[in-house]
Specification:
By secondary structure, this protein is α/β, with parallel strands linked by helices. The protein has one domain (6-176): Alpha-Beta Complex (Spore Coat Polysaccharide Biosynthesis Protein SpsA, Chain A), CATH 3.90.550.10. Helices cover 35% and strands 19% of the residues. β1 (10-11) and β2 (14-15) form a beta hairpin.
Length: 184
């Protein structure tokens, strides 16, 4: 995104993260935003803003760690800021699978691809994340593979896990949402 905060990039005149929060808010009791810069902008979007506990910007897992450290509920869902079409039943389906399986973490998957940054995690997993990060681990998928987890298939809503990584992808999504996508 050219060095700019991805979450704040405009999608049809609204920050990308606003689209994500709009989809997530009806599914949760509280929205905690994990951010390490532009904090004042995020306070307008979420109920609370947290920053990484370490200064080395350890990625999404450090965001999960920061959120779990302040979470007031037994479960916390994480979603990336660049997936504005996330499923409206994401949390319900992850929670059902978590309860049915007895696992500690539920992650989304589509077809044969796991999406570990879309996860529902028990608050008790904070110590596991602390240890994983302290050992030098950073990747969410490696941490998930080390704990009791369940994958939840969302093949019926695969578009909900499309993320926006470039300005070109953002503009293409904008055209699609505006109904201006040229037909092939």
């Amino acid at each position: 995104m050219g060095g700019s905060a991805k979450a704040l990039q405009p999608l049809l005149q609204r920050p990308l993260i606003s689209w994500v929060v709009e989809r997530l808010r009806p599914q949760v009791a509280e929205v905690i935003v994990s951010a390490n810069r532009d904090l004042e902008r995020y306070t307008e979007i979420g109920d609370r803003v947290v920053t990484d506990q370490s200064a080395d910007f350890s990625g999404p897992l450090a965001g999960l760690q920061a959120g779990l450290a302040v979470a007031s509920h037994e479960l916390m869902v994480t979603v990336p800021c660049d997936a504005p079409l996330l499923p409206s039943d994401l949390v319900a389906r992850l929670a059902f699978a978590l309860e049915e399986s007895g696992a500690d973490v539920a992650i989304a998957s589509t077809r044969d691809q796991a999406h570990p940054v879309f996860c529902l995690c028990k608050r008790k997993m904070l110590s596991s994340i602390d240890a994983f990060l302290a050992s030098g681990g950073r990747k969410v998928d490696l941490w998930v593979s080390s704990v009791a987890h369940v994958q939840v298939t969302f093949d019926d809503e695969a578009q909900g896990f499309v993320n926006v990584n470039t300005v070109e992808e953002l503009r293409a999504l904008e055209r699609k949402l505006a109904g201006d996508t040229p037909s092939a």
